[in-house]
Amino acid sequence: MSGATIAAAVARFVRDRVVPYEHDPRRSAHGPSDELVQELRDLARAAGVLTPHILSDGSHLSHRDTAKVLRAAGLSPLGPLAVNVMAPDEGNMYLLGKVASTEQKARFLSPLVDGTARSAFFMTEPAADGGAGSDPSMMLTTAARDGNHWVVNGRKAFITGADGAKVGIVMAKADEGATMFLVDLPDPAITIERVLDTIDSSMPGGHSVVAITNLRIPADQMLGIPGDGFKLAQVRLAPARLTHCMRWLGACDRANEIATDYACRRHAFGKPLVDHEGVGFMLAENLIDLRQAELMIDWCADVLDTGALGTVESSMAKVAVSEALMRIADRCVQVMGGTGVTDDTIVAQVFREVRAFRIYDGPTEVHKWSLAKKIKRDWRDAQSPVHP
């Protein structure tokens, strides 16, 4: 099937089967329960739309086609969970599909693709410790050889889905440099100190602060070779930034639909709200931002589909799209007035989630700083004399 056909099937499933679950009580401030997630995945499996971006032969849809599918999944905050394209699992599946050994794929990737397990990516560290955040070179978590094992010690923070995950990807600093390991979860050497109370609430397990104490990992559970960690992170991070954009674009599609319906039905001062210029113009601006975000995603997806890492392009897309989606979500709340700040619709949740997205996968300012460094490098290179 084409990406467009798969996306249409996903959109129908999300609208018809997932949207009715949006007020299901099996949720907490830290996200939907695993019971709810598995119930939704059973429905997706029966409908033939579970993990739709990975084909039966294990290959992935192109990034351009993935954009269509994940945008459709994002039409409900529960949609990516239901069809198994949520973060961090989607990014972890992509990484393992690219770099894991055959044995590692059978043990760690298969249950993720099947939708029977969740995963967590252990990279970010607590700011109070002076550890790695937006700058992974500051990593303090260590990995030391011990015979045919590695022993990992450190603390991690903002680890999405750690509470309840069955598969972990742990990044630690060995003598050779940053290194990645696969681990089974739960493990007594990995303890959740607390689950943070954050503005967003769409991801099962929330975001945890984690202590890793003398975690013993067999050498054959290393991804790549010692010191490959940063290189492997780049394989994952650029596409994962973009898939975040895809999912939340779908959420803003839906929020805009809800706000538009409200503005066309609600009357004030003698006419529908949409006929008041201040409201109509906000909805018009939403259409412009939605289309610009779509085009930015497709442009970056095309770059990734050439096989390029797309680091610069994904930074540009992440900034442009997250900022555009924030404007859209904010306007939707404003158009709906008091109703917009309630949980009667998903609009308020989309606003909260997109606000967090401006931080997650690199704050806007970090990406701009990185782009500014490239501008300076390019300028400096252009000053060098050209020899025939």
Chain-wise SSE layout:
Layout: H1 3-18, E1 27-28, E2 31-32, H2 34-47, H3 63-73, H4 79-83, H5 89-99, H6 102-113, E3 119-122, E4 142-146, E5 149-160, E6 167-174, E7 177-184, E8 190-196, E9 207-218, E10 222-223, H7 229-265, E11 267-268, E12 271-272, H8 277-305, H9 311-336, H10 347-357, H11 364-383
Parallel strand pairs: 3-6
Antiparallel strand pairs: 1-2, 4-5, 5-9, 6-7, 7-10, 8-9, 11-12
Helix pairs in contact: 1-3, 3-7, 5-6, 5-7, 7-8, 7-9, 7-10, 8-9, 9-10, 9-11
What report would you give on this structure?
This protein has 388 residues and is of the alpha+beta class. Helices cover 49% and strands 17% of the residues. The protein has helices at 3-18, 34-47, 63-73, 79-83, 89-99, 102-113, 229-265, 277-305, 311-336, 347-357, 364-383, and strands at residues 27-28, 31-32, 119-122, 142-146, 149-160, 167-174, 177-184, 190-196, 207-218, 222-223, 267-268, 271-272. The strands form 4 sheets. A 4-stranded mixed beta sheet has the order 3-6-7-10, covered by helices on one side. The longest helix is centred in the middle third of the chain and has 37 residues, at 229-265. The chain is globular, with a radius of gyration of 22 Å.
